Amino acid sequence: MSRKPVVLVTGAAGEVGNGLIHHLTKSAQYDVVALDLKGLHTVSGSCAARIEGDILDRRLLERLVSEFEIHAIFHLAALLSTRSEFTPATAHEVNVTGTLNLLELAVEQSRWHGERVRFLFPSSIAVYGLPDLATKAEAGPVPESEHTEPTTMYGCNKLYCEHLGRYYARHYRQLAVDRERGGIDFRAIRFPGLISAYTVPHGGTSDYAPEMIHAAARGEPYECFVREDTRIPFMAMPDAIDALLALMQAPSARLSTPTYNVAAYSPTAGEFAKLVRDAFPSASIAFVPDLRRQAIVDSWPAEVDDARARADWGFAPKYDVTRTFEEYLLPNIKQRYATR
Ligand code: AKB
Fold it and tell me: In whole angstroms, what is the distance from residue 140 CA to residue 127 CA?
């Protein structure tokens, strides 16, 4: 029985998933299987299948092996940093055991069709843990190898899964007599805060930027939960999706590491608020720091060094902060709320 060669996207109904599937199906280069717990009706594009299910459901994953020939996986399903702090054990289950389940699925798939499965994993700036603001200020653009001491369950999960992916790609069954070669081609991107014109994230600690602009577009007052001087890296969602697609398509020989930093700009929360007020003069924005969430964001770098991504696979964000507002956010976000 022939199975359809497909690309599997988990977390398909999420912020990144929605945009990624739109691009994947538009190119018609891939048949896409969209998997998420719920919300798949929001996924645009003609998917080969939309499956509502849990990445912790091993019987469901076995069914995927029997029905599809999976050649690439974008594993986007995760609980983000703030939400994970309220349910750390559940976050570990979803973020780590869920990822382990998908890696096992990829190995099984590779056994069946004999090719390496490209496994794209969205890691995060949350894997970094700067110990204090003085160190954060002195650190400058942080490279992949420094300050990887996360202070959140989510950051620990993401850092561990980077190593888990590297293990499955390079050391899996290393003591077996019939050691299988290279079932998985694991590639990870440490994303900064992501800003979408179409969706607002839930449960993240970088959410203040997208929340602020969407509140202004809706004409609602916004209380920002971090200080005005808070600085971390951000990126427009289209650049995040382009980065995932570029890394997936990069020849393995070009890649010097499994995990890459990417970023585009690092405004302070106050600078972001000025851009929002310039765009929405009646915007009501107050800074009311939540000291516990503030401590998380203060442990994340102000900037990351993405030189490796630029050198190895040509990462080059299209949107700086000005273009993000003028060409991406404002025209789309105004239209989004005008039709509401
Ligand atoms: C979060 O805030 O948890 C995420 C992230 C920075 O990975 N948006």
Answer: 16
